[in-house]
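Review this:
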Amino acid sequence: MTFRPFRNVIVCHMVPGSEDKVGAVFGHYDQITRPQDLGVIGRSLLSHDDLYIHVLDRKQDPEVSGQRRGLPAFQQIAEEIGPYVTPYPSYWENPSHSVAKQFYSWVPDGEVPEDRALTVIIQRMKPDAESDIARVFADSDAGPLPEEAGVTGRWLYSIDDVFVHLLEQDKAKAVAVRQNHESPQPAFARVMADLSPYVSPYVPDRWKSPKDSVADSFYRWDADDWTPPTAE
């Protein structure tokens, strides 16, 4: 059975152009601490306009593993990135309020290719639209489009007015899918049309095509002494 990490998605404001500074802080502490000892096996940092997106991969949901301790050097990291990264939600009171809420997930039945790519898509969403967005994707994921597009997993998150879509794909099909996004196939165009009452571009003035909603990755760390379990 294919191993899939448990993912937390953290969303904050970030000063545009500060990616190198923020990435360097994490690079330093990921070298001198061992996040994997607390169940963390990878992290991706991405940016989109004034947003900072931190995708944290864990071996297991902390609710199951019981590994609830804060990450190594959490306070030092927070202080060092503080000039660049600030809370996003209007209701923010503590760090847990920066963690986006997962409201939908889909994975195909059976095995999926080992060589998979993760794309992070960012949009604005209308208040309390999670159930409508989930319904649109559930309808689409029940049909042939995911297989045709090489989709190997989908996870949807919300935080305040931000919608985060983690799209995992078979890398071999990713280029073809991107081309389809430039000239959408009817099924993909229908999904976009069905979503349009609930989501919109994060920065409408700069949006020309779906690729303009894709966040840019600027840092990646993976635990080099851990391998996923294999099926028995």
